[in-house]
Amino acid sequence: MEYALLIIAGIVVLVAAAAFSKKLGVATPILLVVIGIGYSFIPGAPHLALNPQVVLDLLLPLLLYAAAVQVPIVDFRRNLGGIGMLSVVLVVISAVVIGFILYALLPQLNLAAAIALGAVVSPTDAVAATAVAKRLGLPARDVTLLEGESLVNDATALVLLKSAIAATAASVSLWSVAGDFAKSVVVAIVVGLVIGFVTVWVRSKFSEPVLDTVISFVVPFAAFIPAEALQASGALSVVVAGLYSGHQAARKFRAQSRISEQVNWRVIAFVIENGVFLIMGGQLAGLVQESVKHPEIGLRETIALGLLVVVVLLFVRALIVAPVLWRIRRAASRADDGRERLSTLRDRMKAWRERSDDDRTQQRADRAEHRIAQRDADMVDLQKNNVGWRDGIVLTWAGMRGVVTLAAAQSLPQGTPYRAQLVLIAFVVAIVSLLAQGGTLPWIIRLTGVRGTDAAADTRELASLLDEIGEAADRAIDDADIDLPEGQSVDPEVVQRIRDDIGVLAESTWERAAIREGRSPVGPHAQYGLLLRIAIDAQREALLEARSKGAYPSRVLGRAQALLDQEEARLERRDVSD
Q1: How many Å apart are CA 240 and CA 217, to the nearest integer?
Q2: Angle between helices 90-105 and 140-169 (to 10 degrees)
Q3: If we measure between CA atoms, which residue out of 245, 252, 256 comes closest to residue 210?
């Protein structure tokens, strides 16, 4: 009964924190950590335990998959070089630097165990970083770099942690660690792709959204377990499977299945990630009590070491972020020359196509032109979303630690010297980075003047995209071959109605763009939305009245309710986009 009450109280706290965090201007993870810390010092309050294996083997795959399916693979591919630097090179360098510092300061700690703690505190938190970044409206490329880094660096850190722990019990060479790391990455990518392909194929055969969503719950573990069994990175395998599944969803799954999956995974991620942050804060008092028992390294010295690690991590991160941004700026400066070469290549491809009537040649030309268009779009994106020193400051300061850091620290072997102090150091790093860096990140963004994407420009591009796909629909209607009874043809009024319905979406989006730029008053589509809201409210009242009278069967009332819900959801999506 006590645990049930704790769970109920915890969920109430999660919901309340999420609701009030927006009003307070604070990210939900930060607020929950503060609440958890306050709870930990309440006399007689039940101790909140965080089993590291449950976090690393059960909760982490779910969180990584939930985040990975939301990441656009095009953005991930475009920033793969920067993501690789931040998620691999930065983690390894940070772990080694922190390891040597702790090895020098703690006399009984061997180098392998010190590097193990360095690996623990190196990865940024996927939830904390992106939650703060998106809420503050950072530029798209900054958000992609933070998301990609936090997805992949967990895998790097955990592989490095395993190697370091193994080195504490046996002699392990640098080359063997590098070989194990390379093998772990390659095997994890292969397993993730195979599991992603198989599960997408299986899920595409189901027409029932509930069954499809249930299968999606298995995907993270289907990718994690075999990768770990093969001594590879289960975390990276989950990320690869999630990226593949998210990319294929628009092509392979039904619309209702996609909607159902998104809602369910958002709920799962919300409960897990925020619940862990709450528990994370609630462990502080217990960790402090355990740490003060050590005769040599007291609480004050342990906290000082934790603060030193935070400063060193920020310094090392700044050193790696600088070349990442330099590489992006260098590529952007060369984009014009690259686009000219692509234009020349496109002209040659067009001439080659015109000289040949062979089907295979035409197919090759189609594929080549697609790749040229893709590369050209990449260069345009580089120019539109370029970065500067301001982005470097924000990206450096946004490197917050969280759930994985604390869970991985608690997985250190029991015989490790200064184990309690090392766990508390990891906790200090996570808490300080969340509260100090996360809490001041809005101020840093205002100080540097970094601006997010232009909402009006995004609306114009959306309208252009809708025009483009609308033209494709028009061509499809012109070429449509519908099987009708002999002598019957499609009614022209039906064709025109379809064309009108298709055009409304683009027209209303162009109208919203004009309103946002102050070029137009409330137009006909906005007026339509206002009147539709009045009509839906009246329909719902009439439906509730009919239900109260019991004049219609429940199944009929349920269907009418579902139709009204769909229409209202469509209207709410329009309101959100406005």
Answers
A1: 15
A2: 50
A3: 256
Tokens at 17, concatenated: 């924190």
pLDDT in tens, 448-474: 888 766 666 667 776 776 777 777 777
Supply 395's token pair. 């990206």
What are 261-290's pLDDT values in tens digits?
A: 888 888 888 888 888 888 877 777 766 666
Residues 355, 387: Cα–Cα separation, whole Å: 43
User: Where does 205-298 have alpha helices with state H?
Assistant: 209-229, 234-252, 255-282, 284-291
Vertex 150 angle, CA 62 and 89, to 5°: 135
pLDDT at 136: 65
CA dihedral 544, 549, 554, 556 (to 10 degrees): -70
Cα 220 to Cα 238: distance, rounded to the nearest angstrom: 5
Cα–Cα distance, 191 to 188 (Å, whole number): 5
State how far the Cα of 473 lies from the Cα of 480, in Å rounded to an integer: 10
The torsion defined by the Cα of 246, 251, 256 and 258, in degrees rounded to 10, comes to 0
Which residue carries 């929950």 as its tokens? 32
Two structure tokens written together for 418: 């200064």
Are 30 and 280 within 8 A, CB to CB?
no
As a residue count, the chain comes to 578
Q: Which among 439, 430, 451, 340 has a CA at the least distance from the CA of 385?
A: 451
Lowest model confidence (mean pLDDT) among 84-98, 165-179, 208-222, 411-425: 165-179
pTM of the model: 0.84
